[in-house]
Amino acid sequence: MDLPCQDWVCHVEQKWAELRSEETERFSLLTDIDAIFNYGLSLICPEDLNILSRISEKFSVKKSPETASEFRQQGNLSFKVKDYPAAVLHYSKGVCHADKNTDELSLCYANRSAALFYQGLYQACLEDIRRSLEAGYPSHLQDKLQTRQTACQNQLRKAEKPNIPHTDHQLSPCQKTVNSTGHLSDGVSVYFSSDKGRHMLVMENKPAGEVVLEDEAYCSVLIPANIFNTGTNKAVETFGTEDRHCHHCLSQSLSFVPCPKCSYARYCGESCQKDAWDQWHQWECPVGADLLAIGVLGHLALRVVLKAGQTEVQMGIKNTKDHVTTYKNDSPVQLSLGGDCGKSLDHTDCFHGSSYMGIYSLLPHVAQHSPASRFLMAITMAVIYGKLQGGPPPNKWMSFKDEGVKASWQPEMSMLGATALRHMMQLRCNAQAITAVRVKEESGMAVQSSSEIRIATAIFPVLSLLNHSCSPNTSISFTTGFQPDPHNQLGCSEGHFDHPKGSRSGVTVTVRASKDLTAGQEILHCYGPHRSRMEVKERQRLLLEQYFFQCVCQACQRDLSEGSPNAKEHTAPGMKCVKCGKPLQSHTDGYTCSWSSCGHQISSADVQNRLQGFQLLLDEAVHLMEQDRLNEALHILQSAFSQANSILTETHPFQGELADALARLYASTGEWSLAASHLKRSLVAIQAQFGEDSIELGRQLFKLAQLHFNGDGVASLSVIPRARRLLSLHCSPRCEELQELSEMEHCLQGLL
Predict the structure, then answer these.
(1) Phi then psi for 637, rounded to 5 degrees?
(2) How far apart are CA 300 and CA 316, in angstroms?
(3) How many angstroms separate the CA atoms of 264 and 64, rounded?
């Protein structure tokens, strides 16, 4: 939930409607962020704070021993049927709801240690045994913990012997620390021009797959999935991103350590817990429910300013006010890190690398936000600022003159709220979705479906400088977690270690060339609306609405030219005539057969209704597959296949989805040859939609390699090289798919 919840939006809209016309006009004319914040601050009253408190009750983050006990009991039920992953997730939720140093907390830790043991996660099991004992696990039950502890130690000693791997791999691969420049690769430079602003060019040829940029998130905030259930005081069985990822470094984990004060925040270990508490969570924690109510962007804006502190913010304000705009040359100028920043009032012609100034200098686009939108953000930040004043001021926001004196909020500290408002405005155009591939948990499925999901929102100081294209020449991938030794790229540990001093967030983005780049070419990134997923008019509408620019990238120009009034009727991708099978041509009112002797017509509404009907059949079949009702699912899929073939060509996206579902079904029954034939059909549709060098095609080829490996293993050897090439264009060499391809290849070559 990026934006504030609807109840809060409605309250602020009512407040806006009640302003007198002269007040509305006065606010609408304000363009200085400090003035906007102070105006909002002048309008709030205690009732606004109370209303937010009432709204946030549904997002309660209070500890609850009763809820902890319910989650532990649900974990016990999962444990009894040997569903250990679900048991661990339930026990973890119990850990988060239990109060510190209580029997309930110790029992949740102890039970979780058992589930971890049966998954072969021995180091994590030992850590939970320690935590259980520290929380006061009953002495009369400690014998079984000691027995489990000894068994873990024995297993770990066996794993230390040569050629005997142990399976404690619950965390994602560690990352290296990114330096202060954001690590531009050799031959990549930052430029400024009046029409493009800051942007990046390659100064030498770069082959597809080469890394051109790495950047570390300044801050990130997890996207909550189950916030509407947190206030019910009932244990719910669904698990969202907040249940699977560390709330500091975003790494996946099973054995979380909770915040000792609230039930929401949880961490992959004590080190992340301490880092988050020191940097921001001790001030976020008392208003945690309010932050869930105001949405991820407001939360992230506050977190950025809490982390930066008063000194960094004052430096940003001072540097901005000290500079006068003198830049007049239209030719692109190369920028150097920390170079002369005297050409632009707002530092938008300077390169600050990964420093906080790199965040502060991003454009807030004040004038482009509607007055009502500015009012919503100003009131929201003013109320959160008021809520924060219920506790002591953050350490980084205490004036040096106040040292030794009881901390108190000073009037000049309102810059905390004003700067958070600046960042909230910036995030409208500069927030970056952090994504991960989530495999759908379908029991019995030999080939599982996967999808890319958003797990968090972050802000990257250097990545934010890339301009948009609807058909970009780069792809991005994310790495989460910390590395104990920034000079050691091999020794990624699954344990919980001290973080290197240079680390900030534990979240790194890697930008790779997805196409061959020639010297002088601009590096372009897709902000979301991509040509392969969205029509040009919809892309342009969304980009103008969210990012305040009219896209003129080559993909848009080409699509607009093809769809112009002067353009001839063009072939409708993936559509064919139901009478003669020839391609259909699209026009304003619908579709016409391209064969003049036929001339059959079909309306857009009819086509839409048919597609919706096909989708309903597919959804029903997938639901039946999840329930192991495979014969019923097969009957529906075959019916959908027959109907779709009458109007859709093999390149239509739905044909790809249908073929993928059939492949998964046949694989689950061991019919590998049939499964592979359907998966090959899906490749045609995916390549037509996303391109021959796309990550989507690479992942589908990976699934085909898995199918061949399970069936006719040798056939995998013809698929693996192409799958590896495509995945290498978009993914880290450490990604699970590439690792598994190498293992399959090694195994098969050993059999030849």
Answers:
(1) -65, -40
(2) 19
(3) 11
The phi and psi torsions of 745 (rounded to 5 degrees) equal: -60, -45
275 Cβ neighbours under 8 A, 6+ residues apart: 248, 499
Q: 720-730: per-residue pLDDT in tens?
A: 999 999 999 88
Q: Please report the pLDDT score of residue 225 as a whole number.
A: 74
Can you point out the beta strands (E) in 356-448?
A: 432-439
Tokens (6 digits) for 360: 């502060």
Backbone φ and ψ for 681, nearest 5 degrees, come out as: -60, -40
**Contact between 656 and 637 (Cβ < 8 Å):** no
Q: What is the SS3 assignment for 292?
A: helix
Q: What does the CA dihedral 395, 399, 401, 407 come to, rounded to 10 degrees?
A: -50
Of the given ranges (72-81, 162-171, 545-554, 736-745), which has the lowest mean pLDDT?
A: 162-171
Q: What are residue 374's phi and psi, to 5 degrees?
A: -60, -40
As a whole number, mean pLDDT of residues 623-643 equals 93
> Token pair for residue 405?
């004196």
Report the alpha-carbon distance of residue 423 to residue 413 in Å, rounded: 16
In Å, how far from its chain's centre is CA 558? 30
Exposure string (b/e) for 132-144, b if CB count within 10 Å is 16 or more? bbebebeeeeeee
Please state at what angle helix 604-626 crosses helix 653-668, rounded to 10 degrees. 20
Please check whether residue 111 is in contact with residue 139, taking contact to mean a CB–CB distance below 8 angstroms.
no
Q: Which conformational region is residue 120 in: left (phi greater than 0), alpha (psi within -120 to 50 degrees), or beta?
A: left
Q: What's the chain's Rg over C-alpha atoms?
A: 28
Considering only CA atoms, which of 11, 117, 118, 97 is closest in space to residue 54?
11
Q: Bridge partners of 182?
A: none
* DSSP helix, strand, coil percent of the chain (3-state; round to 5): 50, 10, 35
